[in-house]
Amino acid sequence: MPALLSSTRRDFLIGSGALFAWAHTPRLARAEGRDPRVLVVVLRGALDGLAVAAPVGDPDWVKLRGDRALVLDGKPPALPLDSFFALNPAMPNLHRLYQAQQATIVHASATPYRDRSHFDGQDVLESGFSKPGSYDSGWLNRALSRLEADGRVNPRGSRAFAVGPVTPLVVRGPAPLMTWMPRQPLPASEDTQARLLDLYVHTDPKLARALEGREDLVALARDGGMDAKPAGAQNPALVGIARVREYAAEVVGSAARYLAQPDGPRVGALSFTGWDTHINEGAASGALAGLLGVLDGAIAAFERNMGAAWSETVVVLITEFGRTARINGTDGTDHGTGTVALLAGGALRGGRVIADWPGLKDTNLYENRDLAATTDLRAVLKGVLKDHLRLDDTVLGNSVFPGSADIKPMPGLLA
Amino acid sequence: MVDDRTREAAFALHRFGLGPRSGSIAAIASDPRGALLAELERPGIGTINNPDLLTSAQASRAGFEAQAARQAKNVLAQRAQKEAERLAAEERQGMSEEAGKMAEPAKPAAAPQVDPAATPERQNFLKEVRARLDAALLPEIGFAERLVWFWSNHFCISRDVVPNMAGGYEREAIRPHILGRFADMLLAVEGHPAMLVYLNNQVSIGPNSVAGINRTRGLNENLAREILELHTLGVRTGYSQTDVFNFAKVLTGWTILPPVDNPEHGAEFVFNARMHEPGPQEVIDKTYPDTGVEQGRAVLADVARNPATATHIATKLARHFAADDPPPALVERLAKTFRDTDGDLKEVTKTLVVSPEPWSSPRDKLKRPSEWAIALSRAVGGRGDPQRFVNGQRALGEPLWQPPAPQGFADTEGAWIDGVGARLDIANNVAQRVAGRVDPGEVLADALGPLASAETRAAVALAETRQQGLVLALMAPEFQRR
Known about the structure:
- Mean pLDDT of chain A is 81; it is low at 1-23, 151-160, 182-186 and 222-239.
- The N and C termini of chain A lie far apart (50 Å).
- Helix content of chain A is 34%, strand content 14%.
- Chain A is α/β, with parallel strands linked by helices.
- In chain A, a hairpin with a 5-residue loop joins strand 4 (79-80) and strand 5 (86-87).
- Chain A has 14 helices and 14 strands.
- Among the domains of chain B are: 4-47 and 365-480, no CATH class; 307-360.
- A two-stranded antiparallel sheet of chain B has the order 1-2.
- In chain B, a hairpin with a 2-residue loop joins strand 3 and strand 4.
- The longest helix of chain B has 39 residues, at 56-94.
- Chain B is flat.
- Chain B starts with a helix and ends with a helix.
- In chain B, 51% of the residues are buried.
- Classes of the chains: A alpha/beta, B mainly alpha.
């Protein structure tokens, strides 16, 4: 009954899109003459890492996935990364960046979470804590709040920046938010906004903070000569995945335009849903290939719109956990453990797949079902935060990723 | 000095209901608690009996039929175009070269343009939205409707996956049970075609079943996991991966009849014994003999009365009706009623009303976009426009029956507060439409009464225009929170 299951995936994919930014220049990085940018992309639903970067050199790979395995002579053929791994053919832009030493893939990695609940898994991924729980701040927000700033880039102050009305945990925390909505209805007048803000300031500081965030963003867009209402116009001729591709590229591309501005925010985050491929996964040419293509297009749009600032940019793409190594009974994969973290950006020392490969034999698999995790994702994130934004080990181990002092930042990720 | 009962009435209408309409506060001021309890006793409360609405199975079949008809139309149009091109080519061959140049090329037959707003599927959907809006706008309080929304979000499905069944699902599986037994709602939900399709169980096949042996497809864990994690026990309550796996085997065979070529029963629930994994299964320390469909019912009955389920449901109810951080005493009291009454939801709901915490917790629970939007319609006396409501919910990040994942929409402030700017835009649009007939001061008095702060009253009174005054009243913190 494929028609019953089919969906345009339009809002599915960007259901909880959000973007986060910080308007300070990190002092230490600035002292080195750099002006670093970071975008974190949370892929919700548990991305199948084996379908992104396939271990084509592992003798057990094809045994494991059969004709669903991505292979170098497949249709379409996987894109070779090194002698062992190959990239999903739906991601030519990421492949191009990889060849230009501007993309890195960390494989068989995972957060410390070892159960299989999406929501607990996302809490661990985004909060930066080692166990699930009820958290009110995310690691990215805390990282920024601990960064020494070299004065404000933007006189309006330090702000998180969110696209869409639903704020993901990774961006929540002490730093206030700027929000930007694609396709806004007619906005209220500035006078009405000012009066409402005045009312909030006197009666409800939390609402005041939320409303202020949006106003600052509108002003920033105006000051920077940007279209204050980034066009959300969809081309009606496009349908299905093509429309999703256009929309995703627009949303991510708009984020880049903010981050690229000389006095704009420096750090953002954004999330995409839709990776929970329990059924008819279609890694090579089906549903997942379509979504990876959307993501690939969004990365390209981001690169393009960053312009010269791309050389100082790192994009980090992470997910809550991986999926079962084997295909399940409905041609999909169930919730698993180890997966990939993807890094892209001109500031990287890329062109590498980093993996302490655990193997794919039954006894190698975690609980005889999942790709085992041999790299702690926090090491990767710490590596980026340390070498790109210059956060120190103590802050990273205590407040950004609490209780993780024994997880050392991965060295050498940056150029 | 403001009458305490009046304040309590206004409070109850926001915290337990969908916000006051003109006159609501006075209508229940003599006994706010009694009014809430009385609404629960109304015959048929919570249900929608509208003969114009299709059942979920009918709506699903109609959707397939409409899609097939559109496809046939396309095929015909393509054939006609090919025929026209062929004729034109023949004609050109028969003409002199000069005349041929002047001849119009064959016009491509316009492919039939389908207006998505006019499809039968869309019409059905908008009828469902109309019925749901009426259920939210017409009652004096709307407490039962809030319960419907709560349970519908707890047992959510998504139109992304089951595009035509969402309204019918809520009317069939949720509404009849909001004041009944939890176990009955659970059974209605997990056996509903919309849920079986949403969480992939309709294609899950026992590896050792007849179908499993003859075909290459097999088990899918999705439904079994989410029942334990989201619908009943709650995450991290002691069940294991093996429990999920075995429960998935128990549920094999719970599927639906193909929606096409079965005009009577397509898309209805069916237990298909050929897909069912044979043999006993152990789930959470108990072995269930293979009794076919009864095996699944037995597991559901047991997880429904598991104490972890009582705590899970009590926590969510307390979070929804009292505070983001649910008061532990309230959670325990609700859970105890749940356990003592074997999940009688009317008793649990009554416990909620007579407990002190929902009345004493600070009035700072941020309304979800849907709660705010309906309260806004009720405050300005609107009848609600289905299309506009649907668009508004999308803009506010809470598209109707379309949550991003099976855990439903978030129920805490952090997820929603940054959408306040989007709310402002919508308030501004509504105010623009109704400013000609609605007085801001009256709206403030009707909708908040004694809850309005001096600052809010002053801001509304000093507004430059009626529209601006309305925006300030509808965006006031007291109206955003409950």
